[in-house]
């Protein structure tokens, strides 16, 4: 075997000399236990780790308290009830239910707050392993003439239908392998290893494409939702229109209705990050019409051909696309190994902590990379906003020092969090601002000439522009939202989020961050857990924060209580709520969209 490994390694190195691999990459054991490919990029271990240092400092203090509680046999997260993620919805609420209202709903607020997220953690006797595997449930809060109703329904995806019919998990999910079909022969089971069937369980987000609303995940399949009753009314596959194998679950929607999606495409020259444009050329009447004019308008080659970066969101300004390539890869060799070793999709994610994050700024005029920048290795899911100012591109993200928070969403991790003194530290994030200089006459020193920021940029010894972020506030922020209709890609001041600090005295906290003053306001209520806040502007409002913030709220001690809470965005105080008593447990959701009546 040693002779084979040496010969195979020599062959691979010769054939892949022009390719780049992460320095720390090793071929999966299914190919060779000891074969290493050393033709990769140089190691980049020496970085000014602003994000990492900020989080480490907080973790040192918070972690010591968690360890003390753990040693004393106390609950390490006494104020956080993570069971809000572990609830099983028992069925559809087909007829909207009424609730008890308090306060005054603005007369101009008419429409539907739609939400998407996990719904059930088991099928028959089979259990899902990760929160992202859970069957999708769509929620609807209908606001009409000062009254609010609530309902929820399971997304009728092909995956959901197959699972329910078989009463077991029959399609692989992110963290869960399908249960083998007992009716298949051993040869049929072996051939199924090489099947490319992928889940269409679109349980992450909801976005408008022209005049239609679609539930999205991270595969090219989307499901059309009727916002008037949240019925599932159509299935579309982007692969029928453009060459992509993966897409981010957070598109961008411009004022004119044009939609941009970041996808991954593969051709004979290798994988590329691809921006797909869906122009608002006509109002769709059939579900596939909204995609018929789709086209790839920009491509960026991945730094490692067999390890494209994991993408969940991206940036869009009037003149640029901004793509952040974090050193968390979707490993192609690991995908092959996962098939042969019967491992879930999550095993394909590989983190390279000694490799930089690369930020690409791509021109929307000629679809070429204008500049690329290096930053410390960090993990992110959500871009907050991005804009151009005085020869710079500014982009804000919810940043983690590494991707351990993905493991925090394992069902067993959620169940054991109250006995895990490291759980809160793994979930720690901070909002970070990067300022990317587009041009500079300087060759030394700080290249950032923009005022009002502590973010920096400089040339490294290799002639690469390295960027150092500014931390926008000392709170963990997630699922961020802005005044999206009016400030997408423009200089902005405020964003709204939920807290990612599960060890706060009140972890169910909503946050309004002022990016000018680096201060924030909060809203919270004991033992309540709000979901992603969505800003709805006042129709004729002038100020950026003139409007309301909508959030759905759950309670840790009552799995059937759910509410729509409305905050005045400027003062960030509650002005109205409607509480409902649901006939089924209501699980916490992820993302949503507000559709006007």
UniProtKB/TrEMBL annotation:
Family as reported in the entry's similarity comment: Belongs to the carotenoid oxygenase family.
One MF annotation (Gene Ontology) recorded for this entry: beta-carotene 15,15'-dioxygenase activity
Name of the protein this chain belongs to: Uncharacterized protein
Sorted UniProt keywords: Iron, Metal-binding, Oxidoreductase
Organism (species): Apolygus lucorum (Small green plant bug)
Pfam families the record matches: RPE65
GO BP terms: carotene catabolic process; retinal metabolic process
Cofactor: Fe(2+)
UniProt cross-references to InterPro entries, sorted A to Z: Carotenoid_Oase
UniProt binding sites for Fe cation: 250, 312, 382, 591
Cofactor comment text: Binds 1 Fe(2+) ion per subunit.
């Amino acid at each position: 075997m040693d002779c084979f490994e040496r010969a195979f390694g020599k062959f691979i190195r010769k054939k892949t000399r022009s390719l780049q691999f992460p320095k720390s990459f090793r071929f999966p054991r299914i190919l060779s236990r000891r074969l290493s490919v050393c033709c990769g990029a140089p190691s980049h271990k020496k970085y000014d780790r602003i994000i990492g240092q900020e989080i480490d400092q907080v973790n040192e203090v918070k972690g010591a308290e968690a360890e003390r509680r753990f040693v004393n046999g106390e609950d390490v997260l006494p104020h956080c009830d993570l069971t809000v993620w572990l609830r099983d919805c028992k069925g559809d609420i087909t007829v909207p239910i009424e609730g008890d209202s308090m306060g005054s709903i603005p007369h101009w607020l008419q429409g539907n707050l739609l939400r998407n997220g996990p719904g059930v953690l088991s099928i028959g006797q089979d259990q899902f392993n990760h929160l992202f595997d859970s069957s999708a449930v769509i929620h609807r809060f209908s606001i009409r003439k000062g009254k609010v109703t609530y309902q929820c329904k399971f997304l009728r995806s092909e995956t959901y239908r197959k699972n329910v019919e078989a009463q077991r998990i029959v399609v692989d999910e992110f963290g869960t392998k399908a249960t083998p079909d007992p009716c298949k022969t051993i040869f049929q089971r072996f051939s199924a290893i090489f099947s490319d069937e992928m889940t269409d369980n679109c349980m992450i987000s909801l976005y408008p494409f022209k005049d239609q609303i679609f539930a999205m995940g991270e595969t090219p399949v989307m499901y059309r939702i009727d916002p008037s009753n949240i019925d599932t009314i159509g299935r579309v596959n982007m692969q029928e229109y453009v060459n992509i194998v993966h897409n981010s679950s957070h598109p961008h929607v411009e004022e004119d209705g044009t939609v941009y999606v970041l996808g991954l495409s593969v051709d004979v020259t290798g994988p590329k990050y691809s921006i797909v444009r869906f122009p608002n050329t006509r109002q769709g009447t059939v579900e596939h019409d909204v995609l018929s004019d789709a086209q790839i308008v920009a491509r960026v080659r991945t730094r490692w051909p067999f390890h494209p970066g994991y993408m969940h969101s991206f940036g869009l300004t009037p003149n640029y696309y901004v793509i952040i390539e974090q050193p968390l890869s979707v490993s192609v060799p690991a995908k092959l190994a996962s098939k042969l070793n019967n491992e879930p999709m999550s095993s394909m994610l590989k983190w390279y902590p000694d490799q930089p994050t690369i930020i690409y700024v791509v021109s929307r005029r000629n679809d070429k990379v204008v500049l690329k920048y290096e930053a410390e290795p960090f993990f992110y899911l959500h871009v907050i906003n991005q804009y151009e100012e005085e020869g710079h591109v500014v982009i804000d993200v919810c940043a983690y020092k590494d991707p351990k928070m993905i493991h925090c969403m394992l069902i067993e991790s959620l169940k054991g969090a109250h006995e895990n003194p490291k759980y809160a530290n793994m979930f720690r994030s901070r909002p970070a601002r990067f300022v990317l200089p587009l041009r500079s006459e300087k060759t030394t020193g700080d290249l950032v000439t923009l005022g009002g920021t502590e973010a920096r940029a400089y040339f490294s010894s290799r002639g690469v522009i390295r960027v150092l972020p500014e931390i926008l506030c000392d709170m963990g922020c997630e699922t961020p939202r802005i005044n999206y209709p009016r400030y997408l890609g423009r200089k902005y001041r405020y964003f709204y989020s939920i807290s990612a600090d599960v060890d706060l005295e009140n972890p169910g906290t909503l946050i309004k961050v002022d990016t000018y003053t680096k201060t924030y306001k909060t809203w919270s209520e004991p033992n309540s857990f709000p979901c992603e806040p969505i800003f709805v502007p006042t129709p004729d409002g002038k100020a950026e924060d003139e409007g309301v913030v909508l959030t759905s709220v759950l309670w840790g001690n009552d799995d059937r209580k759910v509410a729509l809470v409305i905050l005045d965005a400027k003062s960030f105080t509650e002005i109205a709520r409607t509480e409902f008593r649901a006939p089924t447990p209501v699980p916490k959701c992820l993302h949503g969209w507000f559709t006007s009546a």
